[in-house]
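Q: What does the assembly look like in three dimensions?
Context provided by user:
Components: two
Sequences:
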Amino acid sequence: QVQLVQSGAEVRKPGASVKVSCRASGYTFTKYYIYWVRQAPGQGLEWMGRINPNSGGTTYAPKFLGRVTMTRDTSINTVYMDLSRLTSDDTAVYYCAREYLQDPFFDPWGQGTLVSVSS
Amino acid sequence: EIVLTQSPGTLSLSPGERATLSCRASQSVGSSYFAWYQQKPGQAPRLLIYGASNRATGVPERFSGSGSGRDLTLTISRLEPEDFAVYYCQQYGNSPWTFGQGTKVEIK
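A: Here is the predicted structure of the complete assembly.
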């Protein structure tokens, strides 16, 4: 079955960077975009950006431009989300999700990765 | 960016009752480019509806969606115990794609 498995929880200090991975299985990796969505504690969902695993092309939400970088490694069916210059406002669960029908709505989702930013 | 406003914030209902959730966009979203998700505590969201009215694979028939343009509705015809959760709408007609703030459906 289609599955996305993310890396484990991370703790960072303000100003640092974090890199979260998302390994895909159960389908042709290069056929579907992968999206990143985050959710701050007790809050709603926020789209961060997407990557085309085939070309490596990316689209980022304006809010994250200059701070986020999404990459992929097709040899291991994995995408990465790197977020820099972290602040406490970046404390959140970060999800990767696959587009469902080659349109920007999402299913399935990874299990989520908690990133905590604290001094 | 398009802002989605969901109402009500919390819906208190009993199992077997009908739930009606609303989502309004700050401007018209092309065609029916809306989706609905369900999220239970400690879990990732799950896609329920796309294209405003199409159920995703495996989603029970008691879930239905309607609407277009600026207004969207999710209806759960008869609430089952497993339906008590938070529901989010999403628009994907205009980038950046955005979500509503969520409606919590809780047991009365």
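Follow-up: Residues 100 and 107 of chain A are 5 Å apart (CA to CA).
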